[in-house]
Amino acid sequence: MPSKLNKIVFKIPDERKNEKLFYLSYNKKIKNLRKRLKRPLGFILVSEYPYSLKHISSIIKTFNFSSLITVGDFITFSLLEIGLKPNLAIIDGKIMRENFDSDKIKKHFKNIFEVNNPKGVILKETYDVIIRALQENESLVIVNGEEDLLTLVAILESKENSLILYGFPKLGVCFVRNNKSKKLYIKKLYSKGILEDVR
User: Fold this and answer.
1) Please, what is the angle between helix 124-135 and helix 150-157, to 10°?
2) Taking the model in full, what pTM does it have?
């Protein structure tokens, strides 16, 4: 645990930081995009807490993943409690829509980024912050808004063989082992809600 936090708030110097790169709420290209995004992006570990943590820990220790990424306060905090620190964690200070004390998570990370990202969108600022956070280690991105859609960005921008974990409501934890085919699928899915190419 670092003795002193190196707090980083990444700022985008141009006026485009609030541009919506991905817009779910009123997307007209595909009406069922919202339904598709509700499907798991990987396989679900169906197991009640805390037994699921034993399985998660076993999987992480068995496979040599290039990096570990978590999206969500509960899964991030749960892994930290058993001594597993993600290379990147993305949280929004909520668990099941209830407020959660993010300080319990912040104290474990060296690089802390703060960003605004409203529900149902992915802003340019948010996308760029995640890219920056992935370049560091022990990075925490705290989202003022909602982090759910940012799993897409984590998959698109992380290295192959990264493991991305996020909670799947009422079922368990979703495991996404990143590879070329997974990136291609997410890129196609992402393009359904895209307003502007991020490149």
Assistant:
1) 40
2) 0.82
What percentage of the chain reaches a pLDDT higher than 70? 76
pLDDT, position 5: 38
Other beta carbons within 10 angstroms of residue 31's beta carbon come to 8
Q: What is the 3-state secondary structure (H, E, C) of the chain?
A: CCCCCEECCCCCCCCCCCCEEEECCCCCCCCCHHHHHCCCCCEEECCCCCHHHHHHHHHHHHCCCCCEEEECHHHHHHHHHCCCCCCEEEECCEECCEECCCHHHHCCCCEEEEEEECCCEEEHHHHHHHHHHHHCCCEEEEEEECCCCHHHHHHHHCCCCCEEEEEECCCEEEEEECCHHHHHHHHHHHHCCECCCCC
Domain edges within the chain: 6-191
Look up residue 153 and give its two tokens.
Answer: 């960005």
What is the β-pairing status of strands 111-117 and 6-7? parallel
Is the confidence at residue 199, as pLDDT, over 70? no
Distance CA 114, CA 65 (A): 26
> Which H, E and C letters describe 109-163, residue by residue?
CCEEEEEEECCCEEEHHHHHHHHHHHHCCCEEEEEEECCCCHHHHHHHHCCCCCE
